[in-house]
Every structure is written in C-alpha cells, then in structure tokens.
Amino acid sequence: DIQMTQSPSSLSASVGDRVTITCRASQSTSSYLNWYQQKPGKAPKLLIYAASSLLRGVPSRFSGSGSGTEFTLTISSLQPEDFATYYCQQSYSTPWTFGQGTQVEIK
Amino acid sequence: EVQLVESGGGLMQPGGSLRLSCAASGFTVSSNYMSWVRQAPGKGLEWVSVIYSGGSTYYADSVKGRFTISRDNSKNTLYLQMSSLRADDTAVYYCARDGLNEYYGMDVWGQGTTVTVSS
User: Of the N and C termini of chain B, which has fewer Cβ atoms inside 10 Å?
Assistant: First the structure.
C-alpha cells in the first residue's frame, strides 16, 4: 500500500498569509494526487485533482504542484473561510490512501 | 442538480450486518467510479472501497472480506453491505463520485451517514 504523509500536521496562520502544505508518498503516484478541504461536521470538498488541476469553482488562490512522490498545496493569500483541515489522497493504485490531514488554524 | 444522499446508518451490535445506500441524482452512477470513505470520530479520512464503471471492485484491507460494494443501475444507487461489524467500524460513512477514471478525484460527496457499533 502507498503511504501518504503530510506536513505539517497543523499550522497557525493569519489572514493574508501564504500557506504551503506538503504531501509525500512512499512510492511514486505519478500525478494521481488529489487535495481536499474539510470543515468540521461537513463532507470533504475536492480542491485539486491530478496534482495541479483546479476544480471548477475553486478559488484561484489554491494551487497544487508536484509529481512522483512529493506534492504541495499552496494557498496564496489565506482567507477566513480557508480555516479547515486539508487532506491529500493518491488514486494511483488501490487501496486509495489519504494523508493524515493538516489542520489550518487562525493565529 | 448533482447530488448524493446516503441512508442506512444506525446503532449496531458487534458482529451485526448493515447495508448503506447512496442515491444519486443528476448523473449516472454506472458511468463513474464510485467510492465509500469513512471517518471515525475525531480522526482523518479512510478510503473504504471503490467500484469502477466496468464493475471491478476494490477494498481497504481493514474491510476486505466483510464489506461488499455494489450498485443498482435501475435505481441509480450505490450500496455498501457491511457484515461482521466491529467497534472500529464506527464512523461517518460518505459515498463519493470518483470520476470517470483514476485521474479526477472525488468531486461529489454525500452528507454522510453515521454507523455506531457498540454493545
């Protein structure tokens, strides 16, 4: 199974800050890497698919990059509605696997 | 409107069985990959199972042999048959549309249904 490891596990940031979350895979997932946002009590929402493709309707301040084993999610200017938990997920081979999550909190 | 609505969760005793349903509207279940994902209380997301548009099915090791994913094309509905339930199966279960292939991610999610396994 492919293990996904996110860093950091949590971070504190202010509105307007640039935030970067890293996701590392235990083996190559090519570009089969997706990013989700989840707020408490709500279902996750897809932000980025195929490592760098922004889902229609997702604000352009979100971007993804990387391939192989290292990927990043960047929020260029953090907004109040962005405080949430973010997960990466590989869809290169079954079983699909998620990272443990990164909680973005208000500083 | 593209939508998924889960049902069937509840309180179950260890060893019991339960079937979750996920009714889709606005798109065709059989034309897409469809997944189940769960989230234990206070924990992260755990992928459970996927059914491909061609009918192939895959499972997490934690549920293999106990859970079965299926679909009813006439009802446009996805199912998860759960048996030999254990306390660590306690979670919110989400169904999700998982794209036309592995490249697209889970772009539509249901609201979740809660399964509690306890004696």
Answer: N
